[in-house]
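## Example record

The block below lists the input lines for one assembly entry, exactly as stored, with component labels intact.
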Amino acid sequence: MRISLACALALSPLTVPALALAQTGHAQMDHASHGHAGHDMTGMAQPAPEDDGQSHAGHGSNDATTMPDDHHGHGGRAGHHTMASDTGSDTSAMAMPDSAPVPHAPPPAAAFSGPAHAADQIYSPEAMGEARHMVTHEMGGMRTTFVQLDRLELQPTKGADGLAFEAGIRTGGDIDRIWIKTEGEGEIGSGINEAEVSALWSHAIGAWFDLQGGVRQRLREGPDRTELAVGVQGLAPYMFELDAAAYLSTHGELTAGVSAEVDQRLTQRLILQPRVEVQLSAQDISELEMGSGLTSLEAGLRLRYEFAREFAPYIGVEWQKKFGATARYARAAGEDPDRIVAVLGIRAWF
Amino acid sequence: MISHAMNRRALLGAVASTGSAAAICTLFPDWARAQTMHHHPSGAAPGSAPDTTSALQGEDIKLSIARTPFSLGKRTAMATTVNGSLPGPLIRLREGQDVRLHITNGLDVDTSIHWHGLLLPFEMDGVPGVTFPGIRPGETFTYRFPVRQSGTYWYHSHSGGQEGTGLMGPLVIDPADGERIAADREMVIVLSDWSFTAPMEILRKLKIAPDYYNFRQQTWFEAPSGKPMALPDKLKWGRMRMSPADIADVTGATYSYLVNGHAPEAPWSGLFHPGERVRLRVINASAMTLFNLRIPGLPLTVIAADGSDVKPVETDEVQIGVAETYDFLVTPGDRAYTLVAESIDRSGMACATLAPRPGMRAPLPPLRKPPLLTMKDMGMGDMGSMNGMGAMDGMDHSMHHGAGEAEAKAEAKSMDHAGSMRMRDPDNAPGVTLTPGVDMIAPMPVDRTGDRGLGLDDVDHRVLVYTDLEAPGPRRDMAPPTREIEVHLTGNMERYMWSFDGQRFSEIVEPIRLSHNERVRFKLVNLTMMTHPIHLHGFLFDLVNGKGDRQPRKHTVNVLPGGFVAFDVTADAPGDWAFHCHLLLHMMSGMFNVVTVRPLEDEPGRDNAAGDVA
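Predicted structure tokens for the full assembly:
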């Protein structure tokens, strides 16, 4: 049945329109769509304006596809098929028409007709609207929340053992997120003596980086500071995780911090992580015991074992150095501005 | 990370014992029980081989969706099941009949069933928010449609990731006038993946740590692929912020791979009489896993793909994308065989035993080494080997075989410097919105329909490629396509975002608009490093694979990384149709859109079925 129809198509290009319509079993329908489309595209009598594209395709690639120019749309069917029946099942001869270029073109006008949502014609538009809202969200709109404990570590020293932590909560979608970050350090016995909390809005600005902005609150033994924070966080080439931000305090002080870390997989679960963090200040802030320029540097090497991706204890070593005036403040406070400490901690998220 | 070492040992032990685990699991439908003999009712004509003993058939079929405990090994979790089983019951229809499928939702959330690969009125297609409102808790929804085709298909939920928790099952349609190729027996093989972590939680983990499930990475001391990576290569991949070991997002680290609901520890088995012609109806009903399927010692004759007959072609291994189906004819001898379905990253496998007598077992081959991505998978054409990597620099590569056009293009590109070989050059894909969801734009994607699937390049036996598939007769619509629609498959592995043309469906994208009965060519260009099985609902399309009027018909097509695939389709079914990557979490990350066909027919008593002449 199909084959005889196809042969008929091949024999008489003129009968094609009728047969093609018969084939669809929707004569009325198809007339309508022709009417809509206009149309140069499927119009059979008049040569189609995108002739060039089509005949180019044919001529350029294979003699077999060279078909009369008036064979467009349905006419094209006939021409094409003549060739198909000539070559029978010889597929090599058919290879070229397969891959012959097809022009890019906008959809015919008919494609824009009718309702925006077909199912609304059949089901309750309210129910459809609700379901549509859900499916739209479901296909890409997922929000993710997680808590990250990047470092929670003990730094044993001759005096009171040090403590350091760095943690955050992230919530939001793929592009816009809220980050609450906190980090700080202290000593066993005397507790936290320096900490900060940031609340940042984060927006993806490229494949790899997020722009972040918000406020940071410094909480210290000395005077607190509230600061405006602007920075970037993301993955740099060579898989460096980078977090850089500048801060402007309500006192007009400008400071900055940059940290970079990179995971080196020794085995599937044993990971060596070099990490560097530097702090900078544009001015001397005696209240915060901070000199201008490069104030401090921490360079560490941590080796963690991922029992699970979410839970990994680690050991490591870190060089902590303060510079210039900052170092002098530290010395005055009885601290060693240049020391190497062992670290012992856990990294976790959930 | 279970899988590799531990499982192989456990497997071998279990394989030596019998498949008694079936007894503890009440979830298997009759057709999927271990040691099931799928026999003919006596007197049935060879070739029809319907499994009438347990299949649901007739004009009215009742299905109920519920949460049911499902056990694997010692663990039990709640699965989403159809009529209490995982996989769901086999539905057996006959071409030309009408069917009413009554689905009762026993869950406390909405559900749906989509009839994968079926040509039906759009409002019966079962995609909530696109073709119907979904099925509310406690409701019964009746799908009704004429059955207009035959072959091996399947059904699954299109709601809330439920297909990843068990809501799927096989659907077989017998041809109105008998099978073209006779078989003495048939077996339905449903491949799936099961995790004790819910799909949405898996997705959350991937959004936080995209390599969460990948324990087969290239490390300093380990090269699971067997090829230690030289420092320059390591640096080049690092510079791109990508990993050549990024083969599968979700792996054997969490998945158990199942055949008919059975884990390899207690494999499903099918019985045959030696010398019989056995038709295997293989359905990849998994959520996230492409499988490499083979039966060592038994050649596979492919006789149908995605439900449509193809000219028989013999092969030894097939990479089967999620949602694809293949029918194979095999003629086993008087021995046992193991059907092996290895996950594409080879972190685990599903297996089954085919044997002439109960209790027989064949050896289980070990998992092969995981593959690594190459520059070809990065869309650098076929220009450089893994070690070469020089293609990145645009200059110092040597070109191997490749289409003349591609070579010329490559040459042109390397001439005008590294510019156009850059990994994210918008000029290389003008249709793509360069959002944060796009981490690369393959500079020079090539037609990969003739390529073996990822990781099968160097196996020493035959592997099915799409250019092997040929329809037995001329295609239905001889019209050449009048226009081409180029769709780019895009993603960002680091952010775990997936999209078409750089935009997630949640960004309210423009649908792909077709006019009724126009014939269009879709060109799917994969700009990512993963193979995406792309599915168009409501149509069977003609795969452009060089076979001219004998193009095979499919409903789902694997697009290899750095490659493109084209298919032609006649828009003969008005309505709205889902179009998406069938990797569940890619779809749910945004790799989804709607194809609209207009105008709708406005006369009352609209009959879509008439749109397609058989």
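Confidence is low (pLDDT under 50) at residues 1-26, 34-52, 383-419, 603-614 of chain B. The CA atoms of residues 133 and 455 of chain B lie 41 Å apart.
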